[in-house]
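User: Working on a comparison across species. This one is BLUF domain-containing protein from Spirosoma flavum. Can you predict its structure so I can line it up against the others?
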Amino acid sequence: MDHCIVYLSSAVEPLEKADLSILLLQSRRDNIAANITGVLLYAHGSIIQALEGNKAVVEGLYKRIEKDYRHKNVTLVLSRPITQRLFSSWAMGYETMTTHQLDEITTLMSLVKQKKSISEATSDHIVLKLIRNFFKDTSYLMFHNS
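Assistant: Here's the predicted structure for BLUF domain-containing protein from Spirosoma flavum:
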């Protein structure tokens, strides 16, 4: 069974387009070799990333990210087994968010985490659906409105 980790972090310094391109090329190469899939959402130094794959491999990658000098305030949002990868087509999908979109996503994630009546499995599923839907919607718009 695969495992998924979602985390939030802040870049120590905002990443320029060239820095992001290099980071994404390296991540995609490494993720293909490790059979990891996922998506990275970025807005003005803020990062939301979902990683999917073998539990030990994904957890190892997350531990490296926690220690990576380019990140600060790394916060684990969820870590859970999954029966199906939501980003199976992406070694590392990427999308830029506006500050407003970032605020909406982090607010909804926070509300889901605080809601006591929702089971942990259900709330995790909502967090993943939120990220997946944002990524799919913006990717669709990007490719169809160009």
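For your comparison, note: Residues 116-124, 139-146 have pLDDT under 50 and may be disordered.

User: Helpful, thanks.
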